[in-house]
Design goal:
This protein is low in regular secondary structure. The chain is built from 1 helix and no strands.
Length: about 130
């Protein structure tokens, strides 16, 4: 049985997906600052320009998500699956990407100052030490 917080996050994401909001672009520029999306299934979500400062996206599935120009300052992305994610121009300053999977992610122009990349799988498949 999952944690109550995870169940609430999953239910919220299910409702968003049922309404087509994750794939239809409605979450572009969304204000999700501090949101608890731990373990959320956000594969292929369109989150371009979204404000996710301080959001908890640990264990989230963000495979092939579009996070271009998103604000992820101080976001918690521990063990997040970001394979193939589009992160061009994203602000990841101070984000915690410990053990995140960034394989094939596009990071051109992303701001990674003070980001924790310890043990993260980088776009080329190497593991950051």
């Amino acid at each position: 049985m999952g944690s109550p917080r995870l169940e609430v996050a999953d239910e919220a994401v299910r409702k968003l997906r049922a309404r087509g909001w994750l794939t239809g672009g409605v979450l572009r520029n969304a204000w999700l600052r501090g949101a608890n999306l731990e373990g959320a299934q956000l594969a292929r979500a369109d989150l371009r320009g979204a404000d996710l400062q301080g959001a908890n996206l640990s264990w989230a599935n963000l495979q092939h998500a579009d996070l271009q120009n998103a604000d992820l300052q101080r976001a918690m992305l521990e063990r997040a699956d970001l394979r193939g994610a589009r992160l061009q121009g994203a602000n990841l300053q101070g984000a915690n990407l410990w053990r995140a999977n960034l394989r094939y992610a596009q990071l051109d122009g992303a701001y990674l100052q003070n980001a924790n990349l310890q043990e993260a799988t980088m776009p080329d498949g190497s593991v950051h030490r």
